[in-house]
Amino acid sequence: MAKLYAIMEAVADRVEMHKNIGEQRNNWNSLLLTSVNAITLAAATIAGIAATTASMGAPLVALKLSSTLMYLAATGMMLIMNKIQPSQLAEEQRNAARLFKQLHGQIQTTVKIGTPIMADVKEFMDKVLALDKAYPLPLLGAMLEKFPSTVEPAVWWPQQPKRQGKVLNGRINRNGWNGKLEEEMREIVGVLKRKDKADYLRLGEKALKINKVLAISGPLLTGLAAVGSAFVGSPSHGSWAVMLGCVAGALASVVNTFEHGGQVGMVFEMYRSNAGFFSLMEESIESNLKERDIERRDNGELFEMKVALQLGRSLSQLKDLTASSSRNGEAMEEATINMPKLRTTTVSLPKLPTRVVEEFDFRSGYIATQIDKHSNSPININFSTRNDTNVADPIVMAKLYAIMEAVADRVEMHKNIGEQRNNWNSLLLTSINTITLTAATMAGIAATTASIGAPVLALKFSSTLMYLAATGMMLIMNKIQPSQLAEEQRNAARLFKQLHGQIQTTIKFGTPTVANVKEFMDKVLALDKAYPLPLLGAMLDKFPSTVEPAVWWPQQPQRQEKGLSGRTNMNGWNGKLEEEMREIVGVLKRKDKADYLRLGGKALKINKLLAISGPLLTGLAAVGSAFVGSPSHGSWAAVLGCVAGALASVVNTFEHGGQVGMVFEMYRSNAGFFSLMEESIESNLTERDVERRENGELFEMKVALQLGRSLSQLKDLTASSSRKGEAVEEFASKLF
């Protein structure tokens, strides 16, 4: 036990180490991207000014030298950035921190509900060392290869020993396993290999190719721009030199923004990690299937539930998948994971072996009987007697711990994804604004210069290219709304953390039942559906036709309400409390929820207007800058080229700097909070069996806490509402 606690302390420390290192490397990405872009665009602008100036001698030399030096510095910094890929380094550390935290939870579970042995110590030691190897902390000499020749899944777990499989007869049911369950697991492994893992490796290959092209292009362009700016003003090389000095520099900043602002290295690491997740699932399933001693396998019922949780499916959906797979074979189109592309997490399968169940039997007072070998059920764990009727079924308790571990891991997943998407918002906003304003500056210089020919053409061409690039990036940003994506993930992390606390409370103070397992499974799947991790194909609509409250809870069954007499007091409920709850529901509907939906509608309209205006303005600015200096279109072209670009940066700042998408999601989520309160109150009121309701006194206190009120303030609210009816002015919530 002391050894396990020592390992647990070391693992907790590694979580913090990797978090700190990840933050450092994320800072490298944001700070270097912003600085390199600023230097590159300033160098391009200076090269353009040098080409159009009438001065000779020292002023021209100073401009050329400044531009060349900045380009050379940018080239060096880009080479370093592209070599180490700081966004990928940060993603590696985020993954490591999450996986070490997951391992910490597994050790805690073993300590709490198992009887640890030396084999556990060795297992966890091996897992720690495997993670250390997969995600090294040092940079020099130990950094993972950022541009491998082939894309392989990430591997962060110890090698499983090779064993000969033993096929069970369909009638045999031991330790929750039978032939039917084994066949189900084999089908899942087949689909994982054919679809999920193969798809992420294919996407990883694409991301790697794109990153290689960008990593070569950026420094190459700044190097060419440095050569060009050095020869600006030269009688023999003036025309091509100014084109290189301006255009190559402008393109380099665009390439750098795509690579490091778009965090392509992070995306590649995410795909590689996801492929590793499916490889681990395959190995874990195959390891159980190949274990000849059935009693040494993970309990079959528990293992099936873990697999379902990790694939974001219910048990019935898991069975549907395997049935579909066995019918369709290789032609099967559906992936195992119940969400489309861009699943961004990696989850290990924590083991809760049979001895844990035996330990539960001992602690709970169960006396196990012989297993019915002729049962047709895939799970058959019989217990003849139980000494304490208030103690939970050990399998139920083990399932709750498994759900709790999965929920804790989802908290970390959503935190990591939220950080990635928040980075997109800040990095792309800064880079696009810098590019747009530089393009406007170049258009203005081109419009005011007395020069003609190559210098003006270079400035116009650079400005137009930058405007077109900004238009494309704005369209992508406005489509995905990264600030809103980040807010969704923050909400998901908070709600999963809340669910984790609810499970802990149930374990500590309740007597968990199968109904609790189903309830928490349903809540996990409802949250998975409400806040999807994928981006492509599963992203929530950012511009819905109508504003609806967010829904992240399972549907409540509809029941007929039964009122209580005012004199009755059962399970903390009476007629007065019921009336109080009805009044609260009325106020929530009329005031709080309605107000947040109204505000959400306004935020959505503003966001739609800004999302259209930004790319439209940069598009018009691109047209204007292309015609700057034209005898027939010079005046309006100069106005468009400068003013539209300047306005576009203002619009972009309002939209993404002001995080209007985040504000809309916040209002939608708040409306959902009040919808959940309404449903929760109505669900209790419509439960005819008062003893099955939540205790009335406890429920009243919870409602008061959720609304940020004391119990006396809650009663004052309902009294005021009942007196004034529809005209009540006060909001129910003092919290929001």
From TrEMBL:
Coiled coil spans: none
Pfam families, alphabetized: Chloroplast_duf
Transmembrane found in the keyword field: yes
Transmembrane segments: 31-54, 60-80, 213-232, 238-258, 424-446, 452-476, 609-628, 634-654
Keyword Transmembrane helix: yes
Keywords assigned: Membrane, Transmembrane, Transmembrane helix
Protein name: F-box protein
Organism expressing this protein natively: Nyssa sinensis
